[in-house]
């Protein structure tokens, strides 16, 4: 990386002590935003919000909380390091009710976070779900035959649907390559950064407009076709994630290996067919997508999880797609081979 320009940005121009949300006066906290599950993506979003003076707190794991309380939340992006003084806690129940909650926890971590989300929203505040893969609320106010229930794969005991409620859900799709390089420090690779938000009923509601305005410092934009955006991104993950996690290769290395090309194209095209069975018709840009990976050395978040020994996001990115394919009678031969290989490889990690 080129020499970093260090900027120390302080919310309200004050050097506030680290984590204060629970002790702040109510009149100081009129526009509270909390990011639950702040790792690579949540850290990126929270750092940009904090640097812009937004009153943001994060709920994160203890090592992150300790680092952020001590040193602030760091984001290295395009040769600049932002150090944002965001509040941090590993106990969501110590936080007051928020005006807006963003979750960037992986799909498999969400059911366990349902009670925390319910507490943070106070039953009122919207929750922006930013994640790869199919979301648990996919069948809320959609137009499909099975509308009106969670995707069972992603909300197996219904704790999200019943405990948090789909009414508060705002869908989020993100294009941004990030890695946690140290606790409380996120490195953003390249220049791409898009955060696309949409209502499950596809309306351009006043609520959506308000949320997009609040999250503008983090690059938010609105869509009136959130499921189309979910699929557009999911196709990329469906093809890239299993190949990357199995081979341990970054984007440019995958693109340089011609043997991987038909596997990538196969996965992508199977995803296109499943999306089409859902009424979402996207152009076949699989070849261009494959070539485009040569531009980035980013190691996918699933590969990062594979290497760190963490659970993989296979349910949201792969198994839920296979579920929809089976429901619709769409063949997915490439996915059907790679998914068991990936699950076995993940299970066999030391
Ligand atoms: N990284 C990237 O470049 C990209 C990621 N994405 C997607 O964004 C989403 C987030 O990914 P990413 O940021 O990489 O993931 P990370 O694992 O870096 O961040 C998620 C963090 O949330 C923590 N967490 C989970 N549940 C809780 C909880 N209840 N309370 C506190 N902390 C919690 C996790 O801890 P623990 O691990 O201990 O559970 C982890 O530290 C995923 O869906 C991913 O696929 C999309 C585009 C690019
Ligand atoms: C690789 C990338 C940026 C796009 O596939 C991604 O979404 C991830 O890391 O999970």
TrEMBL record:
Q: In which pathway does it act?
A: Cofactor biosynthesis; (R)-pantothenate biosynthesis; (R)-pantoate from 3-methyl-2-oxobutanoate: step 2/2
What's in the keyword line of the UniProt record? NADP, Oxidoreductase, Pantothenate biosynthesis
State the coiled-coil residue ranges. none
Name the EC number(s). Answer: 1.1.1.169
Looking up InterPro entries in the UniProt record yields:
6-PGluconate_DH-like_C_sf, 6PGD_dom2, ApbA, KPA_reductase, KPR-Related, KPR_N, NAD(P)-bd_dom_sf
User: Catalysed reaction(s)?
Assistant: (R)-pantoate + NADP(+) = 2-dehydropantoate + NADPH + H(+)
List the Pfam families hit by this protein, alphabetically. ApbA (PF02558), ApbA_C (PF08546)
Q: Which domain of life is it from?
A: Bacteria
Cited function: Catalyzes the NADPH-dependent reduction of ketopantoate into pantoic acid.
Protein known as = 2-dehydropantoate 2-reductase
